[in-house]
Amino acid sequence: MEHIFNRLYVDYHQSLFQFLVYMLRDRDTAEELVQDVYIKVINSYDKFKGDSSEKTWLFSIARNVAIDYMRKQKRQRKTVVGSFDIEERENQLIHPDKLPDEILEQNESFKQMYDALSQCKEDHRQLILLRYIHGFSIKESAAIMGWSEGKVKTVQHRTLKTLKTILDDSRKEEELSNGTV
Amino acid sequence: MGQSKWNEEKIIQILRDFPAIEDRQKKEELFAKIEKRIDSKKTKRKPFRIMPMLAAACVLIIAAIISPVVLQETVLKKPGSETGQKSSGSPSEPGNEPTEIQKIPEEPIPPASGSEGTSLKAEPSAESEIEPKAYESHNVTYHSGVVEVPQDKQVVTVYYTDSRAEGVVPVSYLADKELPKIEALQQAFQMINPDKLGVLETVFHEGDKVKVSDDLEKKTLIVDIKPGVIQGGTGERMFMDTVNYTAFNLGYEKIVFKTSGEPGYDFPHIGPQDMVEIESPKGVSTLLTDNGTLLLVEGTRADESIDGSSLEENIRTIKIDTSRLGHEEAIQPSVFIKEVNKNEKTVSVELVEGSRLENNMMYIAMIEAMLLTSGQFGFEYVQILGSDTKEVGPYNLAEPIPVLKAPNVISK
Question: What does the pLDDT look like over B357-403, one tens digit per residue?
């Protein structure tokens, strides 16, 4: 068990942890869930062989772990609120957005981008993380997301447009509030 | 107002330059936590593994002594025989008596063919009219589906809700074919015991509050409701879902509502309704109820973010809830699936090279979830390619498997 963990840790941990932080927008939760990911991977390791797609497999599990967690959160929120009609904005309400220190230390563009990503649909955000932050190919992203390659291309294009719109809008709002227009 | 400073290239560049986020946990510290959790799961496992095997062995011996002829006949009459599918896991053979529970030990079950496969069959219980035939492992029971309905039977699939009133759960009953549809439905209401399964009834199932009839020419289910019996948004939603999906599976196209014989019903949230068009369920997941029943659930996708109109995504996001089985993690086809292709009547599910499905109850449920999902999309067969395992329960993976005609069958 330890040798599997050691190898996976060396090869993928940094990337895996970062994926969970950006997906969940919460470092503490990511620290908890990364354990779940390793447990699942270790327990089902013998079911999977094929080094070429190991990373894809690992991220697919990580994504499912994170989705499970978010669904549980939604369910708890429903129970607390006592209503079954509040689903529309749940994507935005999983966590209050706490900017990771690493983002806070960057210039304004990174913070704006982080905020803009938070406003995208959950699965669209996941795709953008996979494609541009983790460098997965279209094919690999499709495998992780369980989508066709065509859908990956379409959603990727659409999300980049959405990001641009959000970023432009936030800039306009900023200019208006600063009286620079 | 100046020109936009954002363009696609800049957005991509910023994303690529996003800072790395380091895990504050040390590697050793993280491993210690993981090891502790895995060990604690192991200690929570059922303390013995030999008992289920002994139970299976006893069943095997008793079955072999008492009814070799009966068992042999059962094999010859298996419903999947025409398509190459084996029948030992299917509760629908004509001539089968109602009760059969296959005790499935932790170890993979032997192939379902020949004497080995039939040897797992338990003796029918004489004490109950409607005991389910099911697989059982670790106190979890799975009522398997049928890929072929006996000629003298008709399927009645009644929908209930899960205990959280979040999703709808189909439970199938095989009624005599001669019965008119509505009588078969009413018989199913009588014969299915939702408490035992761990699912909930809605007003729809309560004969004193709702009367059902039909107009076969207009393919319409008529639901006559007593005034004021449907309460609250959740109650209304679950009522509508259970009626809708039950009607869909019975082959109706519309539902007409009445209030004590008068046209229309005034629902608390959606207001007055005379008639609704029926929607088909999309997406299959599983539910492990508090009573230890594993059920296929329709109309509830495991992953809410997926495109519900895509067969491939629905198949990839199936998840088999194994949370009560101690050592097993949830089984997810996405872990195995390389590609899903559609070809006229057949869905081909190609697994990642080296994938090893296991011949046990949970994987039977996984395959049946795929069969049910493919059936929802209008396909007739599922071909699983690239599996090292050639048989999972009654299913011969070397050949196309017919889609499920009824999930969660609780009766003969």
Answer: 788 888 888 899 999 999 988 999 999 988 878 888 889 988 999 99
Domain ranges of chain B: 50-140, 153-277, 307-402
Q: Which residue of A has its CA nearest to B22?
A: A14
ipTM reported for the complex surpasses 0.90: no
Residues 6+ apart with CB under 8 A from B403: B147, B371, B372, B374, B375, B379, B380, B381, B382
Residue whose C-alpha is closest to residue A143's, from A83, A57, A48, A76? A57
Give the relative orientation of helices B27-44 and A2-24 as an angle to the nearest 10 degrees: 100
Q: Is B3 on the interface with A (CB under 8 A)?
A: no
Which residue of B18, B33, B36, B321 to mutate against A (max A Cβ within 10 Å)? B18
| B345 touches A at CB < 8 Å | no
Q: Which two tokens stand for residue B140?
A: 């979890």
Whether B300 shows a pLDDT value over 80: the answer reads no
B237 — contact with chain A (CB < 8 Å)?
A: yes
Enumerate residues 318 to 337 of chain B having a beta carbon within 8 A of any beta carbon in chain A. 319, 327-330, 332, 334-336
pLDDT per position as a tens digit, A78-111: 443 333 333 433 443 344 456 677 777 777 888 8
Enumerate domains of chain A plus CATH numbers.
Answer: 1-97 (1.10.1740.10), 99-181 (1.10.10.10)
Instruction: Tokens 């449920």: give the residue.
Output: B365
Contacts of B4 in chain A (CB under 8 A): 164, 168, 171
Average pLDDT over residues A11-32: 89
